Amino acid sequence: MSLHALKLSRPTRLRPALTGLAVALLAAGCTTTPVERQNDLSAKAQSHEAYVASSPKAAAPARYRLQVGDILDLRFRRTDEVNDIANVRPDGLISLRWVGEVQAAGLTPAELAAQIEKSYAEVLTDPKVDVIVRSFQPSRVYVGGEVVRPGELQLSGSLSALQAIVRAGDFGPDARRDSIIVIRQNGAAEPEYILLDFGNSAESRLAEARKKPCSPENPLACDGMKVLRPEGFVLEPLDVVFVPKTRIAGVAQFFERYINQIVPLWRNFGLSLTYLVSRDRTSITTTTP
What we know:
Layout: E1 7-8, H1 15-28, H2 35-44, E2 46-47, H3 48-54, E3 71-76, E4 84-87, E5 93-96, E6 100-103, H4 109-120, E7 129-135, E8 140-145, E9 151-154, H5 161-167, E10 180-184, E11 192-196, H6 202-209, E12 240-243, H7 247-262, H8 265-268, E13 272-277, E14 280-285
Parallel strand pairs: 1-13, 2-11, 8-12
Antiparallel strand pairs: 3-4, 3-7, 5-6, 8-9, 10-11, 10-12, 13-14
């Protein structure tokens, strides 16, 4: 049998080697976001236009949201003995006498005041509290996924999603630019997910939207609606900008980048392999030079 006719159709033969390789890559930090997680985020996200149309506060100036490390002065209007100074802990909670712990990080001072009043309603008559931020931590946003330098960015002044991506080193080679997701805290248990499309022109986005009926989820199909430029989307403190990885890059490029370095015969002979990796099936065929 010639090497050109050789086929490896049973992935189990190389699985032990791949398992060891996977462990090495995990240890080296060469991990990728699972496709299932990306799809879950995309399913939750609403378009930039739908977010602005459905959220009256979307165009309003951003309100400060409490962060880990903020120091708060809690002043009760009728019961001075309960006044306290609270530090927002690394887990986002503050500790209150008599009632225990309350979530603080991600809330505005007014939202936290409402939560505190609700917690004290069982032990005080008509509690009213003012939350005063005595010490602020620098505002931050986070950029993750397929950028060159994912991580935390300090927010000083206005910063758009595109500017944040550029400050994180720009899009990585495998970035899916049409599905950038901004995860925004809104004081509720579930954050908001906003989809920004940097990969398609305004004309193509408008044409695609008009293939479906006008609806709150698809406002671009409605009369008078205009495409919003994703470059103009301004971030708020604690926003997370997630740049997903293309599906093909998540699987096929794994082989191209890592397996080819370990099995150089692939570059010298024609081999056809089919592998199942993270529930994605990929076929790779190399040709004889």
